[in-house]
C-alpha cells in the first residue's frame, strides 16, 4: 500500500531538501508538496492524505491556520499532523500541541528523525482507520439491531391489537392499516417524526379494551340494547387503564420474576403508553361533541385521537360488504363529516392515493 504524504512550506529550498531526504521512500510514499496553506487546503479537498507535514511560520495563513482547518473538518479531523518550526520556542511548540498537532520537529530536520516521526504518524493513521472501521461496523450492527427491535415491537403491538379485533370479527390486518393510515395523515398535517412514529405504533392498540368486553355483547348480531351499548362503550376506559398500567389494583403477594414496574415518568416508554392510552380512551370522541365516553369536542380531543378516528372510520367502512371505497368516502364527506377535525379530514383526503395503496397491500386475505 502506497501512503500519501503532504508537505507544506513556503520556502522552496526547504521543500527541495525534504524531497531529497525522502526520495528513497518514493516507492512506499507518494510525496506531495504545497508552497502555502491555500494550496494545501485545495489539495486536501481532492486527495485523502495519510500524513500532513507543515511548517508553522508562513506568510498569510500559517501552520496554525492549516491545523485549525484540518481539525474543524469531519473528513480530516483525525488526520495526523507533524509540525515543523525553525524556532526553538517552547511556547510555540506548546501552542502547536495544544491546537491539535500530533508531533513537532525542529528544522532543519535530520533524515533519521524525520523518517521515524513519519513512520510513527503512519502507524497512528493505521490505528485510527482500523478504529473507525470497527466503530462503523459496530454502528451498523446497532442500527440493524435497533431496526430488528422496532420491528419486533411493532409486531407485538399489532398482535395485541389484533387480539381485540379477532374477538370482534374484524379483519386481522385492520389494526395494521389503521397504524399506517394514521402515520400518513399525521405526516400530511406536518407533524414531526417523533409524533408520526409514535402514532404509527400506538394506533393499532385503539381497541385493545375490547378484550374486557363480554363475548355475548361483543359477538352479538344485530343492534345492541341501551344497556349493552353502555357496556360496549366501556372498552375505551378499559383500554386506557390497561395502557396506563392500572390493571393491578394492588401489589401481588409474591415476587415477580420480572418486576412489574411502570415506565419512568417522562421516558419514551411513558410517552408511548400515554399516547396509546389517549387514543384508546378518546378515539370515539367527535369533533362536534356527540361522541363517547366523555362527550368532549374540538381541540379538547387529543390530536392523535382525531387522526385515528378518521383512519379507523375509513378502514372500517371500506371493509363493510355494503360499501365500496368511494361510497365510504362519500359518507364521510357528508353525513359523518361533523365528527371529524376539518384539518385532519383535509390531510386525509389529500393522502387518499397513498392510503389506497396501503389498503391494497395490507388487504385481509384468508389465513392472514
Topology:
Elements: E1 3-8, H1 12-22, E2 29-34, H2 37-46, E3 51-55, H3 63-72, E4 81-85, H4 90-98, E5 103-106, H5 111-167, H6 174-188, H7 193-202, H8 215-218, H9 226-233, H10 235-243, H11 268-282, H12 303-319, H13 325-333, H14 342-350, H15 352-361
Parallel strand pairs: 1-2, 1-3, 3-4, 4-5
Tell me what the structure shows.
This protein has 368 residues and is α/β, with parallel strands linked by helices. It has two domains: 3-138, 3-Layer(aba) Sandwich (Rossmann fold); 168-361, Hypothetical protein af1432 (Orthogonal Bundle), CATH 1.10.3210. The protein has helices at 12-22, 37-46, 63-72, 90-98, 111-167, 174-188, 193-202, 215-218, 226-233, 235-243, 268-282, 303-319, 325-333, 342-350, 352-361; strands spanning 3-8, 29-34, 51-55, 81-85, 103-106. A five-stranded parallel sheet has the order 2-1-3-4-5, with helices on both faces. α7 (193-202) packs across α11 (268-282) and α11 (268-282) crosses α12 (303-319). The longest helix is centred in the middle third of the chain and has 57 residues, at 111-167. The protein is rod-shaped. 31% of the residues are buried.
Amino acid at each position: 500500500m502506497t501512503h500519501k504524504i503532504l508537505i507544506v512550506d513556503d520556502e522552496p529550498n526547504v521543500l527541495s531538501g525534504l524531497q531529497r531526504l525522502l526520495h528513497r521512500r518514493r516507492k512506499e510514499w507518494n510525496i506531495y508538496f504545497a508552497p502555502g496553506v491555500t494550496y494545501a487546503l485545495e489539495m486536501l479537498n481532492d486527495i485523502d492524505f495519510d500524513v500532513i507535514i507543515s511548517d508553522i511560520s508562513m506568510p498569510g495563513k500559517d501552520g496554525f491556520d492549516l491545523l485549525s482547518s484540518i481539525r474543524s473538518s469531519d473528513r480530516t479531523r483525525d488526520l495526523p499532523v507533524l509540525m515543523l518550526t525553525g524556532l526553538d520556542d517552547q511556547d510555540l511548540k506548546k501552542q502547536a500541541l495544544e491546537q491539535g498537532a500530533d508531533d513537532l520537529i525542529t528544522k532543519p530536520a535530520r533524515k533519521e528523525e524525520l523518517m521515524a516521526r513519519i513512520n510513527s504518524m503512519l502507524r497512528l493513521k493505521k490505528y485510527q482507520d482500523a478504529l473507525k472501521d470497527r466503530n462503523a461496523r459496530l454502528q451498523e450492527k446497532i442500527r440493524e439491531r435497533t431496526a430488528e427491535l422496532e420491528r419486533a415491537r411493532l409486531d407485538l403491538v399489532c398482535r395485541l391489537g389484533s387480539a381485540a379485533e379477532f374477538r370482534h370479527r374484524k379483519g386481522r390486518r385492520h389494526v395494521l392499516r389503521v397504524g399506517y393510515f394514521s402515520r400518513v395523515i399525521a405526516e400530511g398535517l406536518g407533524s414531526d417524526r417523533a409524533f408520526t412514529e409514535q402514532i404509527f405504533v400506538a394506533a393499532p392498540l385503539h381497541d385493545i379494551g375490547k378484550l374486557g368486553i363480554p363475548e355475548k355483547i361483543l359477538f352479538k348480531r344485530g343492534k345492541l340494547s341501551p344497556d349493552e351499548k353502555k357496556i360496549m362503550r366501556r372498552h375505551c376506559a378499559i383500554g386506557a387503564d390497561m395502557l396506563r398500567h392500572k390493571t393491578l389494583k394492588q401489589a401481588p403477594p409474591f415476587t415477580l420474576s420480572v418486576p412489574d414496574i411502570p415506565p419512568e415518568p417522562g421516558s419514551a416508554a411513558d410517552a408511548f403508553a400515554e399516547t396509546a392510552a389517549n387514543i384508546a380512551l378518546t378515539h370515539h370522541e367527535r369533533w362536534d361533541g356527540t361522541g363517547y365516553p366523555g362527550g368532549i369536542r374540538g381541540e379538547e380531543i387529543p390530536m392523535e385521537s382525531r387522526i385515528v378516528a378518521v383512519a379507523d372510520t375509513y378502514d372500517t367502512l371500506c371493509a363493510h360488504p355494503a360499501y365500496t371505497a368511494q361510497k365510504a368516502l362519500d359518507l364521510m364527506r357528508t353525513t359523518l363529516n361533523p365528527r371529524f377535525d376539518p384539518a385532519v379530514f383535509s390531510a386525509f383526503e389529500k393522502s387518499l392515493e397513498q392510503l389506497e395503496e396501503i389498503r391494497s397491500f395490507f388487504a385481509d386475505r384468508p389465513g392472514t
